[in-house]
Amino acid sequence: xxxxxxxxKADEADGICSFELSALDGSPLPAFEAGAHIxxxxxxxxxxxxxxxxxxxxxxxxxxxxxxDPNSRGGSSAMHEQVQTGQTLSxxxxxxxFALDHSARRHLLFGGGIGITPMLAMAWELSRKGxxxxxxxxxxxxxxxxxxxxxxxxPFAARITFHDDSGAKxxxxxxxxxxxxxxxxxHLYVCGPGGFMNHILDTAHKAGWAQxxxxxxxxxxxxxDQSADAPFEVELAKSGRVFQIPxxxxxxxxxxxxxxxxxxxxxxxxxxxxxxxxxxxxxEHRDKFLTVAxxxxxxxxxPCCSRARSSRLVLDL
Length: 317
Hints:
By secondary structure, the chain is an alpha/beta fold.
């Protein structure tokens, strides 16, 4: 855990605030790579994950940006209403589950709304390394688009295309056209609201993009109908202990209550922090982190949200 101070809080767009975080004693912060995020521990026991969006070369600050979600579970509202300049926060060290693949010859970045945040750090890193890339920034309207003025002044401004959904049709994103010709040397990265991401990912799939060249980071999971959920058992291979998982509870909740430690972060199946090996049994995958091929292998699952198709799962715990 790190103790940082909020050195600056700023309104970046309608409903979006940025927070600049620096070490309490002014010392350099741990290094991070583009695509990394931090856990921010907010008041009332809330923990939320936010992508770092500043240049990874900077060691004096972390910059995060937070969209106030009208359906907030408390995190974004607390950040907007309670966290102020000069306040001390506890954060994790950076973790990267959405890294650039530097073996690629070219990079296509798609940021939808607040999903621009990890793309900013990626663009800074790629620009500094002289890599070939283009950034597509899609938003509903200019007043809801963060960092537009700043982006227009960056060294990579010529590589950015802005797509305003409320603007003229000719400047709106034509995903089928942009993704029409998959190139084995090009990698695709996408982050943003679920609908936007599904559109980009579905378009890429139909155009024939290989899964290993498509990188994604969801901010939240889609709603899941849990009305048909049934209980099942989980066995821990290393101890032989067996736990009953009720229909209304997750594997993570039951094991955590029993003192079985599993590293977790989002608790929605989007970050991959809690991925656990499955030795026997068939999971019912509900995460947005593992690929289709990884789901089919059935040798790992996310205990924070996924369940079981078989009566018992044996976990490598």
